[in-house]
Amino acid sequence: MMTESYDYGTARGVWSEAMHAALTARDVRLLAHVPDGGNAPLIARCEADPAITVVPLTTEEEGVGIVAGAWLGGMRSVLAIQSSGVGNCGNLFAMLRSCTLPALLIVSMRGEWGEFVPWQIPMGQAAPDMLRLFGFDLFRLERAEEAQEVTDHALRQAFLGGRATALLVSQRLIGSKSFGK
Amino acid sequence: MESMIDGRLSRRWLVNELLRDRGDLLVVAGLGSTVWDCAAAGDHPLTFPVWAAMGAAATVGLGLALAQPARQVLVVTGDGEMLMQLGALATVAVARPSNLAICVLDNERWGETGNQATHTAHGVSLAGVARECGIPRVLELRSANEVPQLVEASRQAAGPLLAVCKIAADKPPLVMPPRDGSYLKDRFRTALLGAEGAHE
User: Fold this and answer.
1) Nearest CB to B63 within list A61, A65, A92
2) I need a labelling partner for B199 at 20 to 30 A (CA). Which of A71, A73, A168, B170 fits?
């Protein structure tokens, strides 16, 4: 029998504390998400924070609509998804561009760091290119100790620079699912 | 304007009724015919027409409702647009914003592409889906005398509302709102948040 296991990165959860602090400092008050092992600690921190409304989604596309609507209503929000979910969103990303809507996607990466499931690799590898294709500015978080600084600058780019922005959280940091292999 | 066409609700009459005394209502229109219907009722800075991103009207409305809990939000969209993101009904049910009403104009047709039958023409019930998702207020309308009840319900912050209005499959004259997305967004935010709030 195969045992499911997660090889957590070197700093399980530490980055999420700093990221949550950065979101709070920039007045982000809504987190929409499709969960995965990578962003789970961030979601848990936001759920424990009464100042942040957490909206679970059935698919990532819904989250693009929600962040657009929240901005129309004057609220800063972020969308936390896995890199595979980026692929679900193309036609919705076009709306962000058509309307020059600011947005921050926090994308937990798969398919780039000793990925065990071959099916995860094509989308993980294509996600940054797809985001670029739709005009996103990309930031990347590689090391836990940089989480607050990188998140803060991604938030500045999004909400002060007025840009669709994606913060890619490296699989090396969040860990790979090893399935005991 | 006639309220019924061949025994079914007229979309233009219905949307006009919904928006006639809109007060401080915030409106999201889904592509495509419901965008024209809302424009025909009168272009308004606090109507945001979603010209593309098919399926997104309900979730744009949800984000807006969560950001503006003191304002009532009305999404006006079509059956094809709603079918394209059925999961949004589940997400609305779970998020449970008190101030969101979604009105689906169901002509059982893909109106912009040649009037092909949608799934609702084959018996799929959007009201049934909404009920099973747990949306607390679900209405199904077929006649003009039910419309005042819908207008009243859409103004009440009493939990999310999903109203399915069975309408005629007519093609009234095209009336377009502005098309530039950046303009529409800035216009909406300026009207809602004031010039300073919109450009913070």
Assistant:
1) A65
2) A168
Give A-chain residues touching B182 at CB under 8 angstroms: 98-100
Per-residue pLDDT, averaged over A38-46, amounts to 94
Could you read off the pLDDT of B108-129 as tens digits, one per residue? Answer: 999 989 999 999 999 999 999 9
Decide if pLDDT at A68 tops 60: yes
A92 contacts B67? CB cut-off 8 A: no
> Do the Cβ atoms of A88 and A60 come closer than 8 Å?
yes
The residue of chain B nearest to residue A56, with distances taken between CA atoms, is B91
Residue range A6-177 in CATH 3.40.50.970: yes
Tokens of B189: 């935010």
Could you tell me the residue ranges of all domains in chain A?
A: 6-177
Residue B162 predicted with pLDDT over 80: yes
Type of residue at A165: T
State ipTM.
Answer: 0.97
Q: Which CATH number fits domain B4-198: 3.40.630.30, 3.40.50.970, 3.60.110.10, 2.160.10.10?
A: 3.40.50.970
- How far, in Å, are A133, B52, B104, B119 from residue B162 at the CA level? 36, 22, 8, 18
Task: Find, in chain B, the residue whose alpha carbon is nearest to that of A93.
Answer: B53
- Name which of A55, A68, A74 is nearest B197 (Cβ-Cβ): A74
Pairing of strands B8-9, B4-5: antiparallel
Contact between chains at B67 and A75 (C-beta distance less than 8 A):
yes
Beta carbons of B76 and B28 less than 8 angstroms apart: yes
Q: Which residue in the set B67, B91, B198 is minimally distant from A69, CB to CB?
A: B67
